[in-house]
From TrEMBL:
Taxonomic lineage of the native organism: Eukaryota, Fungi, Dikarya, Ascomycota, Pezizomycotina
Gene3D superfamilies with a match to the protein in the record: Clavaminate synthase-like
Residues annotated as transmembrane: none
Keywords from the UniProt entry: Dioxygenase, Iron, Metal-binding, Oxidoreductase
Cellular component terms per the entry's GO annotation: cytoplasm
Residues in TauD/TfdA-like domain copies: 56-351
Annotated organism of origin: Ascodesmis nigricans
Cofactor(s) it depends on: Fe(2+)
Statement: the UniProt record of this protein carries the keyword Transmembrane helix: no
Name of the protein in question: Alpha-ketoglutarate-dependent taurine dioxygenase
InterPro entries in UniProt: AtsK-like (IPR051323), TauD-like_sf (IPR042098), TauD/TfdA-like (IPR003819)
Annotated family: Belongs to the TfdA dioxygenase family.
GO terms of molecular function: 2-oxoglutarate-dependent dioxygenase activity; metal ion binding
Length: 382
């Protein structure tokens, strides 16, 4: 069982920057950053055996809703370790899991995410992400650096004092995975919506496993040779516009420091929990695909988003009620809010994001459908 390490990524540039950062931060062992069990983890069945638990898949490809449990009880159960490990595996396999009407404090959201990550094998020196912009120093509604307040009001204040560009016609550009611009990147995010208007404000998730599986084999092989630069200069600009200083201390890992919100990761990555490949270079935190021309890079990045928006059978859409919770695995899942609220509608929630390994591509891993022995849907002529 060879542990996948950063050496499995294809770009020398990538390895150098990781090693440099490790040296800089005094982190001794590269393997502690990304050593994962192979084969993939399997659940013990402890979660599924809980007496009141009910679960159903929301689509064949992505999403599961679990009911009959309170996450607080899972956190406090004598066998919580085992239950959380099963829950983490379920989230990683189904991309996103929903639990309605949960009674959770922000501290419990944080504990949940950190323990889900540890129970499923993330490096022990990783914690929760601290958002470089939306953290307690500039947030009017919280005092915790490890909780991002997701808020229609805060959004207006921080991001929308930019020049307007005309009527909105492209919500597709808002698809993303959280915080992919960090060197040690996220595993699980949790979002609990606390208050929302009766209608609107749904969130959509899409499966990166399925996106990978829908590509032809030559395309998959080509993409596996590539890395991308993941960056979010928009956050630097938002900080500058608002007179904030960016948070430059470690953001969930000794590797995530400084003002430059940028990292090089593979385009196709392996999820360490499921062992399945997915397309990672999707959405508004990706600057470019390295080694291609600007036109080629831009073409591919647009194509990935087009594949998501034109294949709604790899998406799931969730209509929130107050205090509902979604937990997703950013390594293999994209999501987007729906900005359809009216002027005076208020919607807010609390989000915690776990930081885990440096992304890698394990050449021996497979796609999800290959691992499950299931067929990729075919296009039919009409
Ligand atoms: O507001 C939402 O529905 C999602 C916001 C988001 O991108 C996140 O919580 O990571
Ligand atoms: Fe997000």
């Amino acid at each position: 069982m060879a542990p996948p390490t950063a050496t499995l990524t294809s770009s020398p540039e990538r390895i150098l920057s990781t090693v440099e950062k490790l040296k800089l931060t005094g982190s001794a062992d590269l393997h502690s950053i990304s050593s994962y069990p192979r084969p993939a983890l399997t659940p013990t069945g402890a979660l599924a055996a809980l007496p009141n638990l009910k679960a159903h898949d929301l689509t064949p490809v992505i999403g599961r809703e679990i009911s009959g449990i309170q996450l607080r009880d899972i956190l406090n159960a004598p066998n919580s370790e085992e239950l959380l490990r099963d829950l983490a595996i379920t989230v990683s396999q189904r991309n996103v899991v929903f639990l309605r009407n949960q009674d959770l404090t922000t501290d419990e959201l944080k504990t949940l995410i950190q323990r889900l990550g540890l129970a499923s094998g993330k490096p022990k020196d990783t914690g929760l992400h601290i958002h470089p912009v939306i953290n307690s120093e500039r947030d009017d509604g919280g005092n915790d650096n490890e909780i991002s307040k997701i808020s229609s009001e805060l959004n207006k204040k921080v991001y929308q004092n930019v020049q307007q560009k005309g009527k909105r016609q492209d919500a597709g550009r808002l698809w993303h995975s959280d915080i992919t611009f960090e060197t040690a990147a996220p595993d699980y995010s949790v979002l609990q919506i606390r208050e929302k208007p009766e209608t609107g404000g749904d969130t959509l998730w899409a499966s990166g496993y399925e996106l990978y599986d829908r590509l032809s084999e030559p395309y998959q092989k080509f993409l596996e040779t590539l890395t991308a630069t993941y960056a979010q200069p928009g956050f630097n600009r938002a900080a500058e516009r608002n007179g904030f200083t960016l948070y430059t201390e470690p953001r969930g890992s000794p590797l995530n420091i400084g003002e430059e919100l940028s990292a090089v990761h593979p385009v196709i990555r392996t999820n360490p929990v499921t062992g399945w490949k997915s397309v990672y270079a999707v959405g508004h935190h990706v600057a470019k695909i390295n080694d291609l021309t600007d036109r080629e890079s831009s073409h591919l990045l647009k194509e990935f988003v087009k594949l998501i928006t034109r294949n709604h059978d790899l998406q799931v859409r969730f209509h929130w009620g107050a205090n509902d919770v979604a937990i997703w695995d950013n390594r293999s899942t994209y999501h987007t809010a729906t900005y359809d609220l009216e002027e005076n509608d208020v919607r807010w929630g609390d989000r915690a994001v776990g930081i885990a390994e440096v992304p890698y591509l394990d050449p021996e891993s497979t796609g999800r459908r290959e691992a499950l022995g299931s067929k990729v849907p075919q296009e039919y002529a009409l």
